[in-house]
Amino acid sequence: MKFSTAIENQLNQAVTIIQKGGLVAFPTETVYGLGANALNSNAVTKIFEVKNRPVFDPLIVHVGCMEESEALVESFPPVAKQLAAAFWPGPLTLVLYKKKIIPDIVTAGFPTVAIRVPSHPIALELIHRCQCPLAAPSANRFGKISPTTAQHVKKDLETSIELILDGGPCSIGIESTVLSCLQHPPVLLRPGGIPLEQIEKLLGPIHSQFEKTGLSPGQLPDHYMPTTPLYLGKSIPPFLVQKKIGFLGFNSIPVLDSFAAVELLSPKGILSEAAAHFFSALHRLDQGGLDAILAEPFPNVGLGMAINDRLYKAAQKQ
Ligand code: TXA
Ligand code: MG
Fold first, then answer.
1. Strand order in the sheet with 292-295
2. 5-208 adopts what CATH topology?
3. Which of 111, 174, 212, 270 is the most core-located residue (most Cβ within 10 A)?
4. Nearest Cα residue to atom 6 of ligand 1
5. Using a 6 Å cutoff on CB, does residue 59 contact ligand 1?
6. Where exactly does CATH 3.40.50.11030 map onto the chain?
7. Is the shortest distance between the CB of 175 and ligand 1 below 6 Å?
8. CB of 37 closer than 6 A to ligand 1?
9. What is the pLDDT of residues 26-61, one digit of tens each?
10. Integer Rg of the chain from CA
11. Second-level CATH architecture of 230-314
């Protein structure tokens, strides 16, 4: 793939930084990642420091192709091969038993590792040129709104990282689907960019355990939190009347309410478009000087399931 001179320069710098054990923010098709050489535990430790991420929350390892992932895991069962063949490169992360070569800091001491092949050309080129797997969580401070543009990363992390590779807005806009392949059939740990329906079309019915905290270690209930309090519902609750409220919805505005700001994620009602706009809209509302955000739950199908998961975690808990 041919890149612009600006991207070429950034890629060259990025490779030098990664090879020296530093951190680089880079675009993927889902969200921006904060990457380090996954085989260098000192480098990976810096990710936890910069993000202020608890060390019990393991990272995803990004590789260039299925063969590269096979070198990092004890076994790559047939079902994982089937999933990889269908969805890699793309927004699907597979949890498998790891080889010793993956440092414990990457996997929070678990005997398993989460792996994916991203489909963004800049991410793939970076992995290829670094010649190492990249451990990368989303490039935001722990618990905050995920970044889908280089500007989002800059706002949150500029002072603490050396380089942000700017690949423009992320096309999928929501993190990868995480599937555990430790048991058969696999178990859905986090809904994401590959809808559950597509996985079930391939494998038949699978269990979803993402509602239960504790299964996927990073699935903490307070995640993706805007600074402005966010409430779920279809109309402004009585305690927020007279306040400055922003609305986040799919394709229509509640008729009886009036809002200081409105973000409709897909006026045509297309879930993939809504997912692509979701985090950007949340960032804008959060910066909008509002007293609160009212967000309407999405249809719980396709990518709507992943959007709802993020909304529930972003919302105020009773
Ligand atoms: O799309 C994505 O997945 C983005 C881009 C950058 O690739 N990354 C991302 O990373 O969302 P992060 O750290 O925000 O989320 C990683 C998720 C967490 O829910 C974590 O618990 C889960 O993957 N995970 C990582 N290793 C795991 C393991 N060994 N077992 C179970 N879950 C694991
Ligand atoms: Mg994250």
1. 230-232, 292-295, 245-249, 261-264
2. DHBP synthase (3.90.870)
3. 174
4. 33
5. yes
6. 230-314
7. yes
8. no
9. 999 999 999 999 999 999 999 999 999 999 999 999
10. 19
11. 3-Layer(aba) Sandwich (3.40)
